[in-house]
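Incident review: delayed structure delivery

Summary: a single-chain prediction request sat in the queue longer than the usual turnaround. Root cause was a stuck worker, restarted by the on-call engineer. No data loss occurred. The affected request and its eventual output are reproduced below so the record is complete for anyone auditing the incident later.

Affected input:
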Amino acid sequence: MVLVEVSREGNLGAAMRVAANFGVSRLELVRPGVDPRDDEVRAWACGGDQRVAVQVHDDLAAAVADSRLVIATASARGREAQPVVEPIEAVHAVARAGPSDTALVFGNETRGLSRDDLDRCDLTVRIPTVPEFPVLNVTQAVAVLLGILATATSPSTRPDPPPAPRERVDGLMQHLGQSLEAIGFLDPQNPDRILRKIRRLLGRAHVTCDEVEILRGVCRQMIWAATSADRERWTNAAADDPSRVDEASELVDGFES
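Output delivered after worker restart:
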């Protein structure tokens, strides 16, 4: 479980208690506004702080570095256009990835999660609440989601391979950005709009290591095709004007690098 910029002692302590209730052994804190060793935090934890190992990080990337699946949580307030999954879909995703390889991320009590933090997550889940009063206290959200996701921890056979590690998916996303830019598919003014949607798609698909390699092969082929097309175009231009040979060589080297 990951809490980003938690700012109140009672919320942190109560979250520790709920985490212990559901067997969560690790709590990652990103830039907390309170000290997890504070007496008030420990009072609210009711012994849960003795059962949960706490680490503090400067950013979300460090907190989820060893997680195969990262699930963000968000309320409905001001996020109508944000792609989300229902809790039952999150249950299936956790069952496939494995609870110990899943990070469940909760935002600040007032602001929630930033766009950058949401973009680092594979899925976003929203607890269904009434539109007239949609926002839960962070500890309530923790309790509800951990209770729902606890159904994914029951022993089961998992014939499917696990999702690819985080660094493999991050590498794939970088490669996709380069290849889609090379073929002119991305909007130079806003390339993240498409890449964000692709990241969500990969999260829903639980992409495996083999699938990452296949997709990276596609990326390499796209870059090769773009490079070949430019090489041919500039070679023809250089044939007409020999002074452009160096210009053509520099462009192709830029693509290949």
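Verification: Strands lie at 2-4, 26-30, 53-57, 69-73, 102-106, 123-125.
Action items: add queue-age alerting; document worker restart procedure.
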